[in-house]
Design a protein that fits this description.
This protein has two helices and 32 strands. By secondary structure, the protein is an all-beta fold.
Length: 477
């Protein structure tokens, strides 16, 4: 059967339709000047599609085949490489020349021929840790790929020491110890309430494992860490066996459920976890958390309902009180952006700045050129001071939409925010993608350089930066 995406409700013709190709661009075109102190690799993930997914999968945007892009910076130049992650899922479908896996995280909808295969699309995030580039999707183990060629090696279980069946796409790297705090939820299989937490040292070895039970089977897409604690918000997106047997994607919003936040001491065990309760909040990604004087504060984008605009809020947990099981909530900023990032060198520590791509309704945005994408169009790069609420921003062109930002430290930088912010921008007029580079301390002055691609990349999921000093040497052709 020939491949035909026409008529699929999730793929109106235009920018976000499947691209279905791999590419290399040596010495990319650059408008402006790339600072000489940017040396390393910017990576970003996207969900692309080798074959049309089921038409009833409203979570199709998270159910595409993993595709990684790597922009390698050296000596003021940039080389681009983009590759599919060659998962068991993708290779089985290529062999069959058709879609075999069903709706999002629902094995009941899969073709019987692939019931025994790893369902992971490896499409969400990428981390460099312990000498390995790991690509993550929260329903399975990581996939190990080469940091330069992007060749896929296979799934990785940390030499058999990672026992859970899943690892979230949002582990956290402690900038002080170099440890990776990783976890899996539904860790013993679909619909289980088990959560497994792993401490993985800087060499990539598992040194601690803790298992505990979640209060209900809700999504635990992200965590936050402090120097003493790990914070696990369980969000009111829920599922059930009945839902899966009915052929639906795994998650649905249930505003009657409370937000439950588990706080586990990093030196503790399952018996030491404390649970705090709050109102239902729609949130998936978190900024940072710190602990001081017996209190934990955590900043995150969150909204009151499934489609309400987000705000940056602060949750405060009083660890000194053994009786109180609720947390305080306050609005830090009305900045509306669900993928904020920070200077990751200050993760778990006192910090000040968040970088957000957002929509300024007072500035023009050409949404007519982006069918099906208008609601997600973002036209400003913002720097938010989480202490004062001050916002500085740069407006991009009306035909551009910014994706998730990533902070890139200036080479040898010591202070927070001393560096650059990068983000891929979709250009709906030229039908191409650009990588915009901003000076993080002078966001309002606009992009200082633009890396031009001669093709488009679909909307991405997450981004990361790996300094050249942390990666193995590049073997030049």
């Amino acid at each position: 059967m020939a491949v035909d995406f026409r008529g699929h409700p999730m793929f109106p013709r235009g920018f976000n339709s499947p691209t279905r190709f791999e590419a290399d661009v040596y010495d990319c075109e650059v408008w402006g000047t790339i600072p000489s102190d940017i040396e390393g690799t910017f990576v970003r993930m996207q969900c692309d599609f080798a074959y049309p997914p089921p038409k009833n999968d409203w979570m199709t945007g998270f159910n595409g085949d993993g595709h990684i892009s790597a922009f390698r910076f050296a000596n003021g130049s940039v080389d681009y490489r983009g590759r599919y992650i060659k998962t068991a899922r993708l290779m089985a479908e290529r062999k069959a020349r058709r879609r075999l896996f069903g709706v999002y995280r629902n094995s009941f909808t899969d073709d019987p021929s692939v019931r025994h295969l790893d369902r992971s699309a490896a499409n969400t995030h990428a981390y460099w840790h312990g000498g390995k580039l790991l690509v993550l999707k929260e329903d399975a183990l990581p996939w190990h790929i080469d940091p330069h060629t992007l060749e896929t090696y296979g799934p990785w279980d940390f030499n058999g020491k990672y026992k859970a069946v899943s690892m979230s796409a949002h582990p956290k790297v402690d900038p002080v110890s170099g440890e990776l705090i990783a976890y899996g939820y539904q860790a013993k299989g679909d619909l289980t309430d088990d959560v497994a937490v792993y401490t993985i040292n800087a060499q990539g070895e598992v040194v601690k494992e803790v298992w505990f039970k979640a209060p209900y089977v809700g999504i635990i897409h992200d965590i936050a860490i402090t120097q003493k604690y790990i914070i696990f918000p369980v969000v009111a997106r829920v599922t059930s066996l009945e839902r899966l047997k009915a052929g639906e994607p795994m998650w649905e919003w249930d505003g009657s459920r409370p937000t439950m936040v588990g706080i586990l001491p990093r030196d503790g065990d399952a018996k030491d976890i404390r649970w705090f309760r709050g109102p239902a909040r729609n949130t998936l990604h978190f900024l940072n958390a710190t602990d001081r004087n017996g209190k934990i504060t955590m900043e995150l984008p969150t909204s009151d309902g499934e489609r309400d605009p987000s705000q940056i809020r602060r949750w405060t947990f009083d660890m000194r009180s053994r009786r109180r099981d609720t947390f305080e909530e306050e609005v830090v900023s009305t900045v509306n952006g669900f993928l904020p990032r920070m200077d990751d060198r200050f993760l778990s520590l006192d910090y000040r700045y968040a970088f957000v791509t957002s929509r300024d309704p007072s500035r023009p945005a050409d949404t007519q050129r982006a069918p099906g994408m208008a609601r997600m169009t973002t036209n400003v790069m913002q720097r938010l001071d989480v202490r004062t609420g001050e916002v500085k921003q740069s407006y991009v062109e009306p035909v551009q939409s910014l994706q998730e930002p990533c902070f890139v430290p200036r080479k040898n930088a010591q202070h927070e925010g001393d560096g650059y912010v990068m983000a891929v921008a979709s250009n709906y007029e030229s039908m191409t993608s650009d990588l915009l580079i901003f000076d993080a301390q002078r966001i309002e002055e606009g992009a200082i350089a633009t890396v031009k691609l001669p093709f488009r990349l679909r909307s991405g999921t997450h981004t990361n930066w790996f300094p050249a000093s942390s990666l193995p040497p590049v073997k030049e052709a």
